[in-house]
Amino acid sequence: MRSPASFHRDTEDPVAHSLVFPIYQTSSFLMPEGEHYRYGREWNPTVEELARKMDMLEGTPSSTCFSSGMGAITSLLLSHLRPGSRLLIHRDMFSRTYRFAREFLASFGVSVSVAEPGSEEFIRMVRSEKPDMALLESVTNPVLRVMDIPRIAEACREVGARFIVDSTLATPVNQKPFGMGADAVIHSASKFLSGHNDVIAGTLSGREEIVRRADDMRRNLGSTLDPQSAFLVMRGLRTLEVRMERINRDAERVAEELCSLEHVRDVIYPGLKEHPDHDISRRVLCHPGGVITFHLSEDIDPQAFMRALGVVAPANTLGGVFSTISQPYTMSHRGLSEEEKEKLGITRGMMRLSVGLEGADAIVEDIRGAISRARLYSPHLGQ
Question: What is the spatial distance between Cα 222 and Cα 78, in angstroms, rounded to a whole number?
């Protein structure tokens, strides 16, 4: 992979040729000299530079940027689907994406089919449902199933479906879906790409026709990324490779340690041999990544556990330099029904850990200590 740290060598600042591409903090541009840019909601040089860097990272011909990952997803779906269109998604995905498809798009007249977790079921439904578009997460959130991108891409080609991959958890360091047959790749750039928990952004990279239509919808909906946020994402990209190298290594160690930790059960991490997609992970990912899901035993109160943490921060996000942990049941997937949570195994004791840069030993010891303190004050123990 081309190292993001070398991107400054491709800077095209036409005014001062600065080492770091500047922030064009303006709402509009002089005419006719600014004919290409016109108005900030449509184009901005700083945002355009981020899109160019995403093409370099993903190996795609076209990219565009949005004010959030959900902005990228909704703009894409609304630009390509019409009443009567057929969309295939899977149950184990980010709940906002799932609900937008199942509630809004369905009410809009789009036929939405839902595959149960796993590549085989998704491939079967691609061939049986023959959707116009198939949307999946390459590593699903929060149950961390790993999807077989090359095989799913082949099935989509057979039926003429556009194949879209949300690769937020995988990152371009660990996987490049476009080179495996995907038509477009989405990122919540708020996560690993920016990497500092200080910006909200989204990107779409892929075939020019798909990106162009989504970008036109972006301008209609107004989900435009501001230049300051684009600048922060580009800053994060410079350290993406080195951050992921550390996060990948430490996450593997943390997952192994959690397997032997008292009051922790059902550790879910694609790098573990017990994971149902371990073989797929070895084939389609350079590394399983930095997110681990595990369950606390029933005698540990999840809220008491999160309050007892010191190094790991309880927060509804992932992918930053800080290790964060969330309870999907009450946080990221709180919008799902009880039945949907049960189908996915999202219990009150499920924890989603995003490994940061504090070091594997510090993270494991913090979790161990928080479990011990949570037991002391757990209401389940009558104390």
Answer: 13
pLDDT tens profile 345-376: 889 999 999 999 999 999 999 999 999 999 87
Residue pLDDT, tens place only, 249-288: 999 999 999 999 999 999 999 999 999 999 999 999 999 9
Phi, psi (degrees; rounded to nearest 5) at 12: -120, 55
Q: Classify 314 as helix, strand or coil.
A: strand
* DSSP SS3 for 38: coil
Any idea which residue has 């099935």 for tokens?
155
Q: Which CATH architecture has domain 241-381?
A: Alpha-Beta Complex (3.90)
Within the chain, all domains assigned CATH 3.40.640.10 are found at 4-237
Residue type, 103: E
Question: Under 8 Å CB-to-CB from 13, ≥6 apart: which residues?
Answer: 21, 22
Nearest-angstrom CA–CA distance, 61 and 82: 25
Architecture, CATH, for domain 4-237: 3-Layer(aba) Sandwich (3.40)
Dist CA 136 CA 336 (whole Å): 18
